[in-house]
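FIELD: query
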Amino acid sequence: MFEFLTDKLGKVFRGLSNKGRLEEKDIDDALRQVRLALLEADVNFRVVKDFNARVRERSLGAEVLESLNPGQQIIKIVNDELIAILGGGQSRLTPSAQPPSVAMLVGLQGCGKTTTAAKLALHLKRSGQRPLLVAADNRRPAAIEQLSTLGKQIDIPVYSETPEATSKDICAHALRKVKELAATWVIVDTAGRFHIDETLMEELAQLKREIKPCEVILVVDAMIGQDALQLATEFHSKLNLTGLVLTKMDGDARGGAALSIRWVSGVPIKFIGVGEKVDAFESFYPDRLASRILGMGDMLTLVEKAEGMFDEERAKELTKKARTASFDLYDFLVQMGEVRKMGPLAQLVEMLPGSSKLAGRLPEGTEDKRLKRIESIILSMTPEERHNPGIIDGSRRSRIARGSGVKPQDINQLLNQFRQMQKLMKMGIGGKLPRNLMGMFK
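FIELD: result
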């Protein structure tokens, strides 16, 4: 996400940081490069123009020109203005005064509405709500089946009828089931349609009048770039949208739509989809995304992901083991399993400050293969070897290699990296990362 823009802006800021004092010409030269980087990243030209004007005005102030470190001051200004463009503060779902609250999902066909409906339902369930999914997409029969399958996976009820039923009737009948199911949120998956089709858009507006949703959310595929802006503007003019969900953000290295859509449409981004899995869904925080774009990481989201996946008692036990040097290869295997649940490694590394380049160098899918290989090696060891890898000699190494289908040098590499990790854990957060960290994922 934003790999292209992060790299370009990083070069600009490194150039500014190398200068002791800045002149107006230095700022203009840097902003010219920023403008080109934003335009190449597919950010709307009006957004770029407004952004550059605001950054330039603030950068020419005394606080920057007379600062001992003007480069850092400009980075702070750029960060502030990025946050402003992205919407300022976080935009949450607004529930109805009386339950159930209804969220209606709209958008083009193929934008990921059905999957997003399930992701949103799981998000609400994890926050203590009782959601009901409604399969109101009667134009695509496969959508009903898809939503029902997803609902079973996440153990959330799905209300559906035959494709012959109208969306209006499906929703009316679903709302009658709410009391029986004690649902607090109803998430309606509507049929995809083009914003230029007046008849279908009027049908959607009529459905909105009937079910009176407190949230009308447009699901937008981030990969469509500049077209997303007109799409959001048109849907907003006809339906008075309350929020946006940007899908496929993990596949959009340029990310211009995300930077433009809030500023141009005026509709807040509430969530982003960052993968195909049903839990690859994040609340949208403008400040966190701005931090990622500038290569400063996003530790808060990383911590939240970890808290959601890791068992608290198990985490305490592993921390104690790390401190007493009794953390062994079995514990290491358990930890890797927990990390895998959090999502692709490249996405996690991207959240670490200064690690955007490292994330970009991780080939897609490579980390999964490597983790499976490590798992195979560790499971081919005896309990004694896992607990005390120091006893692994040549003959044991050969046996483990045959059992896991790898070469003896792969086992040596794993044991060396494990020893480095043990040292790192003893030192705590202040320790340096192992030099051959990348080797673990090749």
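FIELD: remark
Residues 145 and 347 are 30 Å apart (CA to CA).
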